[in-house]
Amino acid sequence: MPNTSAPAICVRGLTKDYGRGRGVFDVNLEVDAGEVLGFLGPNGAGKTVTMRHLMGFVRPQRGTAEILGHNCFWERPQVQVSLGYLPGENACMKEMAARSFLDLLAEMRGMRDHARMMELVDVFGLDLGARIGGMSKGNRQKVAIVAAFMARPDVLLLDEPTSGLDPLMQERFLDLVEEERARGAAILLSSHIFEEVGRACDRVAFIRAGRVVMTCTMDEVRSMRGRGYTVEFANVRERTRWELAHGNESANGSDRAVELRDVRDVNALIRELSSYDVAEVTSRAQTLEELFLHLYEGDELSGQK
What we know:
- Helices cover 35% and strands 27% of the residues.
- The chain is of the alpha/beta class.
- The protein folds into 2 domains: 9-222, Rossmann fold (3-Layer(aba) Sandwich); 226-285, Alpha-Beta Plaits.
- The strands form 3 sheets. The chain has a 6-stranded mixed β-sheet, with helices on both faces. It has a 4-stranded antiparallel β-sheet with strand order 2-1-4-5. The chain has a 3-stranded antiparallel β-sheet with strand order 12-11-13, sandwiched between helices.
- Helix 6 links the parallel strand 7 (155-159) and strand 8.
- It is globular and about 70 Å long.
- The model has no long low-confidence stretch (mean pLDDT 88).
């Protein structure tokens, strides 16, 4: 890893306007060596567009995107040397066998030692003799993961990295991310699987309509999370009485339960429920997805921290 005090990934005022509100607008991001930044937002929010700028595929209209001090568009060859990229859309050559494809990439990167490649092949149980085009989506994703990680890059850009993987392979992938972070790699991880981000990342950046609207640590995210509760009433009449009291009768006619999201004042909830005939109350931590939706709906994502 180069000896520099600057962030390994540095995006400043990045803007690319495709019209009709599409694109990215004044995006600012930083990722240090040995850090994983989660990049969260709904489909079309600008995550992949930002990744493509960092890969040097797109020239910004305004602002800059730099990796290890190199301008991603104007110095793309220097950037590519130290970069591992896992695209959201699998770009592996489908007519090739997995081994031939990985060997070709290794040759292009000047890799003489294939030990790391074979180690990752073993970790993910990849059949090197299989033709990529005949593989399942999950196995094609394994090929892409090995390709991104096998050169031990200083910077990793991961766009929906566990798409198609089964739960066991997802666990192995998250272990791999932790291993690379401990080695000192800077990792930008874009995902819609919010619990995956919660486990893997040090910080998260929320993007909405092409703008980064909040960046915070995982500890700060945890402090913002409320709890969700499922309240099962003794009968439908009691559930209906609750719904009417809250101006909402959305539950199924025969359902006795209601779902409550983002409950912060548990004592107030208990006091209110004391006037109802309640059969059971269960609780769970609010997911990151629910937190994002709550902030989005409440328009509380008003500025980047």
